[in-house]
Amino acid sequence: VVQRVLQTWDEIGTVLKEPQKVGRAPLLSTSQVTLLLTLLDQYPAIYLDELQDELQWRYDVSVSLATIWRSLKRLGITSKKLSKSALKRCEESRRAFQLQIADETPERLVFTDECGVNLKVADRLMGW
Fold first, then answer.
1. What is the largest CA-CA distance in the chain?
2. Which of 9, 62, 69, 94 is the most buried if burial means most Cβ atoms within 10 Å?
3. pLDDT (tens digit, 9 = 90+) per residue, 70-83?
4. Phi and psi, residue 60, nearest 5°
5. Are 115 and 32 contacting, i.e. CB atoms less than 8 angstroms apart?
6. Is 119 helix (H, G, I), strand (E, B) or coil?
7. Each residue's pLDDT tens digit, 31-72
8. Percent of the chain at pLDDT exceeding 70
9. Which parts of the chain fold into alpha helices (H)?
10. CA-based torsion, 30, 31, 32, 36: positive or negative
11. How open is the CA angle 83-90-123, to the nearest 5 degrees?
12. Half-sphere exposure (CA, 13 Å, Cβ side) for 78?
């Protein structure tokens, strides 16, 4: 044991070797994972097959739904139940609207309910 420790010290200057990576290399590149994260940020109710279609369209990469799911799980991203308000909320749009109307007087503002509907996410109960 002492001989191996001394040999390791002579070879790399430390007694601890880098742990060997076990398993297969990830199928998705860093840019492809970044695309997944961007899409999940913009569309929290997006389905795995829609992510798969985007990867196919943008990168010409064909991966299984399980591969996408495992990649997201490895990043600590899991699916969650969404409330209707979370499905419709877009913080960036809200900030832009607030800046747009900031100079208006209260007398000029009229409020309505349900002035926009996104039918694609209206029935989705799960998100990321």
1. 85
2. 69
3. 999 989 988 877 66
4. 55, 45
5. no
6. coil
7. 999 999 999 988 888 889 999 999 999 999 999 999 999 999
8. 77
9. 2-12, 30-42, 48-59, 65-74, 84-88, 91-101
10. positive
11. 40
12. 3
Residue with token string 């799911």: 69
Owner of token pair 């398993």: 23
The separation between the first and the last C-alpha atoms of the chain, rounded to the nearest angstrom, is 49
Cβ atoms of 67 and 28 closer than 8 Å: yes
Structure tokens, 44? 């929290």
| Cα separation, 52 vs 32, whole angstroms | 11
**What residue has token string 């010409």?**
60
Tokens of 48: 């795995």
